[in-house]
Amino acid sequence: MRSWLEIAEQFTAAFNALDGDGFGALYADDVAVWHNVDMQTQTKAENLASVSATLCNASSASYDSIVRTRTDAGFVQQHIVNLQLKDGRRIPPIAACLVFRIESGFISRLDEYLDPTAAVQMMSTQAPTQATGVRR
Asked: Could you give the residue ranges of the DSSP H alpha helices within 27-93?
């Protein structure tokens, strides 16, 4: 079974590699992903479509200045989101805090906290059609 740190590192690696499917390998089938920006909870399929739609428009992505803290239920990760779009635009850095609940080696819940103004700009990069995977 994966440790919380292995999950954290694989989650970050998936984002940095523009690998939307990499997130899916870490999510439990019944994962709930909540966002402070819209106060909505997404299913696994909904979240993967959203992540993939964002990443398919990016030429590079990274989580920087990462700080992780283990909790009884999983871990908390704070980081700065950096995105460079394929058209050359760079999204201003976004401070984020993710709260992960881990069960049986998978992410069972993820609560994502982003600056709402910056997050709206990032979400505007999503393709009109929701992709299921990311292609460079």
From this structure: 44-55
